[in-house]
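The authors assume throughout that readers already know how a fold can be written as discrete tokens. Each protein is reduced to its one-letter sequence and a matching series of backbone shape codes. I therefore recommend that a typical entry be quoted early in the introduction. For illustration, here is how one protein appears when written out as sequence plus structure tokens:
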Amino acid sequence: MASKRLLKRDVNNVFGDIIEAAYIHQEANPEEDKAKTEAIVDEAIADFDELIVKINQKDVENKAQHFKAIEKELEAKAEKLIEKVNAL
């Protein structure tokens, strides 16, 4: 079972890397529309906030199962955002 601290660290690192990749693309391609990159960053921040709220839930009966579900959701959201960054 992942601890709450490690899960928060994973969420932070994954979304931080995605945001960094989006900004690197934006800097490398200044002639492209920045709105697409900003939309990806905004979505990453919203997903980050959503997952942190779920991690901090107090009324969870089975923490191990709850954290595993969050890990799977993190993976799915990250894959979706990475596909969007790669499509830029």
